[in-house]
Each structure stands twice: as C-alpha cells, then as structure tokens.
Amino acid sequence: MARMERERKLLQQSVAVVATIPVAAGLYGVLFGQALTGDAVSISAESHFRFLSGLLLGIGLCFWSTLPSIEIRTGRFRLLTLLVVIGGLGRLIGLGLTGLPSLFMVGGLIVELVVAPVLCLWQTRVANLYAEEYGVA
Q1: How far apart are CA 80 and CA 44, in angstroms?
Q2: What's the pLDDT score for residue 2?
Q3: How many domains does the chain have?
Q4: Using CA atoms, how far apart are residues 130 and 137, in angstroms rounded to an integer?
Q5: Angle subtended by helix axes 74-98 and 103-110, to nearest 10
Q6: Which residues cross the membrane (predicted)?
Q7: Residue-number span of the structural domain to which 112 is assigned
Q8: Backbone phi, then psi, for 8, in 5-degree steps?
Q9: pLDDT, tens digit (0-9, with 9 covering 90-100), for 14-73
C-alpha cells in the first residue's frame, strides 16, 4: 500500500506541474491573443488563436480534474492524452511542412509526443497497482 500511495502522490505532483503548461499558455492566449508572437494577424486569425488557446486551457484544467482520484481516472486521462498527442502530431506535420519553429514550440512538441504519453502510461501503472491493492476490476 505504501508503494502505491507514494507512486500515486508522485504522479499527482507530476501531472499538476506539467498541466500548468497548457493552463498558463491557454490562459495567456485567451487573454492576450497573438501578442505572444508579436505577429500582426487578421481578426479572424486572432479569434481562431483565442479559441485554440481556450481548448488548451480546458485540456490543462481537465488534467487537473483527474488529480484527486487519479488512480481511477484512466478513461479521462487517456482521452486527454489522445487529444494532446493528436495536437502534437499536427505540430509535427507543421514542422515538416514549414520548418523548425521557436524553442517554445519544440518544447511543446516534446511535451505532447513524449511527456504526455509517459504520464499516461504511469497513470495506467498506478491504476493497476490500485486495482491489485483494493481488488478493483
């Protein structure tokens, strides 16, 4: 039980920290729009950027919503991870089509295609430990 609890706490802390990235970036994008890049864009592009920032914010908040009972939130965690990975694949395609983006965007790509799947695998491990410990199917 102590092993499962320790691993659960570490997972919760890791997810809480990593989910700060989409929450902060999403909130900033919603509030300030394209100002982050300094590029002038059309009103429609600005609106789309804020919409996507809102989705990013929502994904981060949903990851935070798994924290209290992370050991039983496997379905939600996997769905959120799938959304993040699909977004990362879109970013990867963009990298191939348009070239290397800023260092922040490359960092985002690493979080989307490496960190999120690793956290998802870890969540599954914790869920399995919980199931073994408490005889939950």
Answers
A1: 27
A2: 86
A3: 1
A4: 10
A5: 140
A6: 49-67, 79-97, 103-122
A7: 2-134
A8: -60, -45
A9: 999 999 999 999 999 999 998 767 788 899 999 999 999 999 999 999 999 999 999 999
